[in-house]
Amino acid sequence: MVRLFRQLLLLTGKAGLARFIFLGLLSGASSFLFINFVNKSVGYIIAGHFEEKRLQYTALFAAVILLFVVVRRVLSLGLIRLSQTLFWNIRKQIIGCVLNSNYRQLFNKKADIQAAMTNDVNLLTTVSLSIIGFFTAFILAIASLVYLASISFVLFLITLVVAGAGSLVYHFSAMNNNERLKKGHLLERDFFRSMDTILDGFKEIYMEPKKGKAVYDEKIKRIAKNAYRNNVSAFTGFLNNQIIGQVLFYILIASILLFFSFVLKIKSQDIVSFVFTLLYLLGALETILTTIPVLSRAMVSSDRLLDLTENLRANSDRNRIPKKYMTAAEFDSIVIKALQFKYGETAQDFSVGPVNFDLRKGEVVFIYGGNGSGKTTFMQALTGLHIPDAGEIRLNGLLVTNENYPEYRSCFSVVFSDFYLFDELFGWKNPDQEKFLYYLRLFELEGKVTLEGNRFSTTDLSMGQRKRLALIASLLEDKPLLILDEWAADQDPYFRKKFYTEIIPLLKQSGITIIAITHDDKYYHCADRVYKMEYGKLMEKPVGEYAVS
Ligand SMILES: Nc1ncnc2c1ncn2[C@@H]1O[C@H](COP(=O)(O)OP(=O)(O)OP(=O)(O)O)[C@@H](O)[C@H]1O
């Protein structure tokens, strides 16, 4: 609650919040004034001298209705704006944190982020709209209680005892319900995970519907069943509370009419006013009680959102935009000493290193090795995607540290084996069209794709062509180092030959330094140096071994 309040305060500022509170008070006051005028009018009507008050009360009713409309309009507009600002601010904040977060940490948080972006943010913003009703009802309830005390203090005390008993029941059951709501959120996250499995693996499911049925039966159905049970008991708990609250009030009203009015000898006019105000109080309490479950869910959502942003921030590696980009001409060397990287903490977790490795300007280096030997892991540690656990990296003699990692990473263009082909050259406003056309010819994609502004006309290409386009996009970035992870694996034999024997020498000639992970031993002679990765250890192999036979 406090965290949510702080978040709101950040958005509204102190003056803005004071304005909302003032308007909320006015809104509650206008509702209370209305009841008060109704009560008074009824009193005058019962007493038989309403005629002389008719004009005065016409004006008072008109004024209070006008006040109600104006205050509600201003308050509603303010809250709609606030809820939309909250909605987009939280989304932007989360995306900002995602963009700044550590690659390894982010990997495990996909489902959490998706659930937060859809469920939690939506809930939080819709609840901010129901706050008007809640706040007005709250003020009305307080004012009604004060009014009740002024009519009959004894009846007021009895009302307080009944309200207190209702609140206690509510409080204890709400704690259980909130736990259930938290569990509901966890189930929602599991649901998103399974949804991802279905959407990402749809090709495989389409080919073998048994897979889809198994995911449906074993995951979706189980989650739905658990979520159904959990949510039904949470909401039943809230509804039961509501019913208990209402029944207590009905008993109170009936007791006042049938019993207390005679025992306490209260004037019939006061009894009418008391019961009338009690009915209004009941309405206000009903609004409060129905809004509380939504508020509780919003509180859980807001806690989850704040936990997520705090967690993302804590794991941020401040992946800022580099202050300076190195050109190919400026690049001289990368020297790596005793680099080590380990996934996780246990003895079973795979590790790479210690690796000693150096790379000079314009070199072409190939790395090969069995599946799972650690080639990609090494490449990810070399490029700064994974931060090494030990050892040092020097770029042009300068030690790479946490402070200059962004500049270091920006020296590499990478085409990952599981690359993502952006349909726009994001971050490059005016790409060099001539260079693009040159590469398009070189990679034999002419007539297949064009560059419109910085957007590709299409990315609906074959896998091999998509990889060629991804490489072109990387080359347009003009980085000194090019890293390729099994790039040629999807190319046909003709283009594979062209890639190793023509394209790589051309790129080398233009000053680009290349590291390629490759299983194409037929072309290892095209490299200046060849390394083998085995169980996380990198060993240099003589290139002569791979001379063309
Ligand atoms: N995200 C990860 N978390 C934990 N361990 C991982 C992760 N990714 C890979 N590994 C482990 O690291 C080892 C090396 O994986 P890596 O991808 O580096 O191998 P590779 O040599 O590139 O293999 P391939 O030729 O199959 O692509 C694997 O055996 C795997 O157990």
From TrEMBL:
GO terms for molecular function: ABC-type transporter activity; ATP binding; ATP hydrolysis activity; peptide transmembrane transporter activity. Residues 336-549 form the ABC transporter domain. The chain crosses the membrane at residues 20-39, 59-82, 123-147, 153-173, 247-266, 272-295. GO terms for cellular component: ATP-binding cassette (ABC) transporter complex. One of its GO terms (biological process) is peptide transport. It is found in: Cell membrane. It is a multi-pass membrane protein. InterPro entries: AAA+_ATPase (IPR003593), ABC1_TM_dom (IPR011527), ABC1_TM_sf (IPR036640), ABC_transporter-like_ATP-bd (IPR003439), Cyc_pep_transpt_SyrD/YojI (IPR005898), ECF_ABC_transporter_ATP-bd (IPR050095), P-loop_NTPase (IPR027417). Pfam families: ABC_tran (PF00005). The keyword Plastid does not apply. Residues 21-297 form the ABC transmembrane type-1 domain. Its main location: membrane. Keywords: ATP-binding, Membrane, Nucleotide-binding, Transmembrane, Transmembrane helix, Transport. NCBIfam families: cyc_pep_trnsptr. This is Cyclic peptide transporter. It comes from Niastella yeongjuensis.
